[in-house]
User: Which sequence fits this backbone?
């Protein structure tokens, strides 16, 4: 029995919420204080990489079309790339701050995949609306990881970066496969849940 897609979305929402809260804690206390315990430096990149790895089973077992499979595969690849680049930077294997741009690439690819893989219009149902919204959120906020690469010690940039992940988590928690959006549900969408 395959669980509803919303359950998988909620699991990843939890992952994004954890990422956002870790980044927010680091932005509040500062990188120097955050990294007094060496293992804390590995929390964000390790969690991001793990989420990329966990996207592969989603691609394999929970997709219903080629477009969905390609979108989930792209997400898996860019999350793993961004996590690996951040891990290598923390470990000291990579030195150029330009490697932080992998997160910006992950934002653009993920946002584009969100929009492409949702083939229904914005007001078809809640999940369609949220997929479009999350796609545009990631594409438009891709400038924040770029700013983070240019100004790694900026509190404002660090906070904005963390809040993107928290916002993404809230949107994913709001997902229901068949539910109305703004009181509207397309007649062909099916019976609303709850």
Assistant:
């Amino acid at each position: 029995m395959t669980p509803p897609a919303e359950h998988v979305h909620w699991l990843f929402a939890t992952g994004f919420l954890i990422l956002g809260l870790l980044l927010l804690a680091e932005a509040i206390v500062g990188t120097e204080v955050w990294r007094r315990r060496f293992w804390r430096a590995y929390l964000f990149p390790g969690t991001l990489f793990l989420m990329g790895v966990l996207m592969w089973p989603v691609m394999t077992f929970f997709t219903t079309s080629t477009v969905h499979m390609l979108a989930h595969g792209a997400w898996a690849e860019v999350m793993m790339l961004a996590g690996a680049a951040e891990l290598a930077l923390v470990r000291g294997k990579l030195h150029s701050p330009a490697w932080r741009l992998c997160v910006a690439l992950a934002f653009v690819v993920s946002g584009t995949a969100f929009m492409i893989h949702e083939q229904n219009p914005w007001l078809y149902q809640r999940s369609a609306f949220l997929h479009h919204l999350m796609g545009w959120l990631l594409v438009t906020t891709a400038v924040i990881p770029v700013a983070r690469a240019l100004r790694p010690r900026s509190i404002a940039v660090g906070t904005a970066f963390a809040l993107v992940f928290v916002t993404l988590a809230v949107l994913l928690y709001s997902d229901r496969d068949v539910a109305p959006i703004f009181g509207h549900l397309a007649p062909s969408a099916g019976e609303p849940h709850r």
Remarks:
- Residues 66-91 form the longest helix (26 residues).
- The chain has one domain: 5-186.
